[in-house]
Write a structure and sequence with these properties.
Layout lengths: L1 E4 L17 H13 L5 E4 L6 H4 L5 H12 L2 E5 L3 E4 L2 H20 L4 E3 L21 H11 L6 E5 L6 H7 L5 E8 L21 E6 L4 H20 L3 E6 L8 H4 L7 H18 L4 E5 L5 H15 L20 H10 L4
Parallel strand pairs: 1-2, 1-5, 5-10, 6-7, 6-9, 7-8, 9-10
Antiparallel strand pairs: 3-4
Helix pairs in contact: 1-10, 4-5, 7-9, 9-10
Length: about 350
């Protein structure tokens, strides 16, 4: 079985001037109902995180400021712009709670995916930014570590944009091996291969900065040449995925950039992560939603990820593959492998 966590309350975070709108989840949920969940996938209702749980990953003053702005009716919380409504604080707690629940489920032996918003991977311990309020993946990882459910977590971020907030959260902590594959250089401007961690966490922060047009083959090569060897060396108790679908080729007009990944490419990538979890940590894998703004690419990407997590065949790729060739990534992967002792 695979647990899918979703609540219509995620639609209540409805702030103007942002591409991160309720339509993202509304459209995805509608497709899941229309197509039917993959065999073995069951829906579940998330529960909100507590302030104490969120404070494991965020400074208390940041939490209080977000609460105060929302209590005052909402407004701009970061000039990216990241805007909140009166309901956003409560919805952000629910999103963080869904991530915690997904990790708990995965550690119990059942793959899980949290279809949530607002996303989280840009939120640093001190700052909400980039449409992100609380860092859902970081909160869930910190909770699992604090509860003693896990000692080592492999956290993989495959959003188009670098997970700067997650990187900041664990930059000096070897309890989380953070791997981010992303287009570089675009927002937020971080994510160079040479950002490898600090102190005890040196070597446990792995950035794979891909060039525009990298494509499906490059995504799969990151598993074969970087992620799988790292996982075998690290021996995680859990693979936690920050799942962004804005690297899809159809995002070009929306995001102004593109790694040219297809829905079929996302399925094969998620399938590779699921197999790696089966090899390294008894199948313990969880995903939380990050970006993805082309509604069909997002919805079909999520549906196929659910299928992959449950060891089911691909559902289909109605959008098809991009027609132009893929950009060479040999130099990028060679640099990453050198920096992390994989060459």
């Amino acid at each position: 079985m695979t647990l899918l966590l979703y609540s219509p309350r995620f639609l209540d975070h409805d702030a103007p001037y942002m591409a991160e709108t309720p339509d993202r989840l509304r459209h995805t949920w509608a497709l899941l109902q229309q197509q039917g969940l993959p065999p073995g996938c069951r829906p579940g209702a998330p529960r909100p995180a507590t302030r104490q749980q969120v404070a494991r990953a965020h400074d208390g003053r940041m939490i209080d400021r977000l609460h105060a702005v929302c209590r005052g009716g909402g407004g701009v919380i970061d000039p990216a712009p990241t805007v909140v409504s009166a309901q956003s604080y409560d919805v952000a707690l629910l999103a963080a709670g869904a991530a915690i629940q997904a990790v708990e489920c995965a550690l119990g032996g059942e793959p899980a995916f949290a279809l949530l918003r607002p996303p989280g991977h840009h939120a640093t311990p001190q700052r909400a930014m980039g449409f992100c309020l609380f860092n859902n993946a970081a909160v869930a990882a910190r909770q699992a570590l604090a509860d003693g459910q896990a000692e080592r977590i492999l956290l993989i971020d495959f959003d188009l944009h670098h997970g700067n907030g997650t990187q900041d959260s664990f930059y000096a902590d070897p309890a989380v091996l953070f791997v981010s594959l992303h287009q570089y250089p675009i927002y937020p401007g971080t994510g160079r291969a040479e950002e490898t961690g600090a102190g005890a966490g040196t070597g446990y922060n792995v950035n794979i900065p891909l060039p525009a047009g990298a494509g499906d083959v490059a995504f799969q090569r990151t598993i074969d040449e970087v992620i799988a060897p790292l996982a075998r060396r690290y021996r995680p108790d859990l693979i936690l995925c920050s799942c962004g679908y804005d690297a899809h080729w159809a995002e070009n007009a929306v995001a102004g950039a593109g790694l040219q990944v297809s829905v079929a490419g996302y399925y094969r990538f998620a399938q590779g992560l699921r197999r790696l979890a089966q090899e390294c940590c008894r199948g313990r894998i969880a995903g939380v939603l990050e970006g993805g703004y082309h509604l069909d690419a997002l919805a079909w990407g999520v549906l196929n990820t659910l299928a992959a997590f449950g060891d089911q065949p691909a559902i289909g790729d109605p959008l098809g593959a991009v027609l132009n060739g893929e950009t060479d990534v040999d130099h990028v992967l060679a640099r990453v492998k050198r920096l992390h002792g994989l060459a």
